[in-house]
Amino acid sequence: MSDFRTDLGKVRGIGAAKGGVHEFITHRVSAVVLAILLPFFVCGLMKALPGGYDGLMAWVGSPTGAFVLLGFLTAGIYHGRLGINEVISDYVQSTGMRSVSMILNALVSVSAWLIGVLAILKIWLGA
Amino acid sequence: MAKGWTDKRPMSPHISIWKWHPTMLSSILHRATGIVLYFGLLKLAVVLAFLAAGPQWFAKVEPMVYSPIGAFAFFFVVGVLIYHFLNGIRHLVWDIGAGFNPKLANMISLVTILVSAVSAAYLTWLLTGAIT
User: Fold this and answer.
1) DSSP string over B64-84
2) Distance between A71 CA and the closest CA of chain B, angstroms
3) Average pLDDT, stretch A7-30?
4) Alpha helices in B54-67 (DSSP H)
5) Which pLDDT belongs to residue B15?
6) Residue A70 forms contact with B (CB below 8 Å)
7) If you placed Cys at B82, which of B16, B27, B94, B116 could pair as Cys (CB 3.0 to 4.6 Å)?
């Protein structure tokens, strides 16, 4: 029986990675966002921490503080989730355990993001 | 990974025969610090939730931050953060296709580790000075 499929068609999608261009690019884009926000995050933290509860509340309650924290937490957890997924796909060999680990990672990441964002919004909108 | 490998011929090169060099160290550290920072972000989200819940709740996590252990944790996490930040910028430069000269890359690896340790120590010193 003759084979009508092209060589390229036969190998497409069966490499080790199978996919991941989107993850590759968004990992780097979120890295750029984090690199821009990081100095503001560290400066804000350095100013707020000595003030204890009131200092931290003032920081999170200010528009710039809330903006920096929301951006940092969002880009950070997005970037971190992609990074942990990469670690999982490097070291977890069985497909089942890999899927379970990645779903757990997604649940933890999204939960932490929601907890953090809701907390920032509560403080900022209540300030 | 040697698991499931049936070929009797020698496998080369493998983990045990690699010579340690700075770029290898910085690559491993980049992954390790990334994992640490992920847990750092989880902690940030939880502390923000305690902060939003009110002063009586924040008092429960306060000793975690304002204590010698808290100062050490700050030093560790900030150092890790600055390292991942600096080395991440280098990764972005590498993605463009620049900065692959081995001598320069090895030197930058060591400088990055040194700069992050020193700046973390400086920031911790500033902060502990401002708190007490």
Assistant:
1) HHSSHHHHHHHHHHHHHHHHH
2) 12
3) 84
4) 55-65
5) 66
6) no
7) B116
